[in-house]
Amino acid sequence: MKNQSTKTIQKHEATDLPSALIDIPQLINGKKPAVFLDYDGCLSPIVKDPDKAVMTQEMRDTLQRLASVCSVAVVSGRDRANVEKLVQLDNLYYAGSHGFDISGPNNMHTEPGGASEAVPALDKAQKTLDERLKDVEGVLVERKRYAIAVHYRNVPDDQVSKVLQVTEGVIAEHPELKKGPGKKIMELKPNLDWHKGKAVRWLMNELDLNKPDIVPLYIGDDITDEDAFAELQGEGIGIMVGEHDDKTAAEYRLEDVTDVLAFLEALTQTIKSQQDV
Ligand SMILES: O=P(O)(O)OC[C@H]1O[C@H](O[C@H]2O[C@H](CO)[C@@H](O)[C@H](O)[C@H]2O)[C@H](O)[C@@H](O)[C@@H]1O
């Protein structure tokens, strides 16, 4: 596979992509998938309050069954400990804070992106944001170990530009941090060359998944998932859930979380029937 920096990434409108549900046996083509999943908008619908983005027991059971037949990782912008608590499955791998903080079975815990150096800047930025945004109705400053999400989904329209201006101003005060987009959030992230795509590649190497009989599959709904779609393009399968504001490097689509559930269930059955042959 070509190095990410030399590869030309093909992008499409999400609405032009074929559904990943059409023919799963053909999609994985006799290979064993390694499944990487985003959390918000993929395993749980987007809701107004991030604390209420709770995964259903049905989705948990489905993930559990899938993880019994192939490697499964949740690659999230959320804090790693938070997403682990939401998913509640100990046979999965978790990459939190957009891939900076990775854990897995057998006490695996590692931070391959080197984000700890950004913690002092994140701590200062959090205090400044809390202070400068304290009077804005509906704003939420969510601290993750290696990122801060400033949520404006519940901010009155006429105050959103103030939230964005204040947040950009705080980012400009900290060269250790950079801006990251998201669905009704602006994020402050370590200013390092690390993202979900690099975390997926790191996990594939670590778990010995770079094999001709394994196909990596990434499912996500947000701009931050584009790094993972791009990383796997030409080698794996990128599946976009719904749409975001830009074109996507994914090759297939699913409509929503209900479709994701149906896809994961059918994928598990396909893997099992391949094993039975
Ligand atoms: O990479 P993800 O697992 O998709 O995490 C991305 C962000 O998800 C959360 O925010 C988003 O979902 C919230 C709940 O549905 C919604 O209220 C918010 O508007 C969305 O942006 C999470 O709170 C963030 O920390 C993640 O970065």
Can you put this structure into words, describing what you see?
With 277 residues, this protein is an alpha/beta fold. The chain folds into two domains: 165 residues, 3-Layer(aba) Sandwich (Rossmann fold); 76 residues, Trehalose-6-phosphate phosphatase related protein, domain 2 (Alpha-Beta Plaits, 2-Layer Sandwich), CATH 3.30.70.1020. The protein contains eight helices and twelve strands. It has an eight-stranded mixed sheet, with helices on both faces. Strands 6-7-9-8 form a four-stranded antiparallel sheet, covered by helices on one side. Helix 4 runs antiparallel to helix 5. The longest helix is centred in the last third of the chain and has 20 residues. The chain starts with 23 loop residues before the first helix and ends with a helix. The mean pLDDT is 96. The structure holds the ligand O=P(O)(O)OC[C@H]1O[C@H](O[C@H]2O[C@H](CO)[C@@H](O)[C@H](O)[C@H]2O)[C@H](O)[C@@H](O)[C@@H]1O. The site of the ligand O=P(O)(O)OC[C@H]1O[C@H](O[C@H]2O[C@H](CO)[C@@H](O)[C@H](O)[C@H]2O)[C@H](O)[C@@H](O)[C@@H]1O has 22 residues, from strand 7. GO terms for molecular function: metal ion binding; trehalose-phosphatase activity. Its EC number is 3.1.3.12. Keywords: Hydrolase, Magnesium, Metal-binding. Belongs to the trehalose phosphatase family. It is an enzyme of class 3 (hydrolase).
